[in-house]
Amino acid sequence: MLNEVVNFNEKFKEAAILEHERLHANMAKDEESTMKEYEGNEAYITIFLLEFGETEAIVTALEGFKETTENKISNFEGVINAEITKDWKDTESRIVQEEHARNRDIIEEIV
């Protein structure tokens, strides 16, 4: 699962950088028509132009997002694997106890 998250984050970063470059190129060509294209999404323009004016800012933010999601997924995988291991041990213990009880019953019948 962690590999899927890593792949998603890489593709997301590539798409965000391409969109950022496209938006900046469109704004440089014709700001008015670009603003019309994003009418109703002023927050989108604000974020991409003001908060992430440079591509490096986007990369930094997305790297932070990537690290956070990878840590969360890794923690979830750790919990899941621990529960699976616990379940295997509990099942093995139960089977061994049942097998010992069965063997004792067989011995009692023989004796």
Number of domains: 1
Number of E strands: 0
| Beta-strand residue fraction | under 5%
- SSE pattern, N- to C-terminal: HHHH
Structural class: mainly alpha
Tally the helices: what do you get? 4
State the end-to-end CA separation: 55 Å
Question: What characteristic shape results from the CA principal axes?
Answer: rod-shaped
Q: Provide mean pLDDT, rounded.
A: 85
Characterize the biggest β-sheet: none
Unreliable spans: none
**Rg over CA atoms:** 28 Å
Fraction of residues in helix: over 70%
Structural key phrases:
111 residues; mainly alpha; 91% helix; single chain
Question: Mind explaining what this structure looks like?
Answer:
- The protein has four helices and no strands.
- It is mostly helical and 111 residues long.
- The chain has one domain (2-110).
- The protein has helices spanning 2-29, 31-37, 42-51, 55-110.
- It is 91% helix and 0% strand.
- Helix 1 packs across helix 2 (31-37).
- The mean pLDDT is 85.
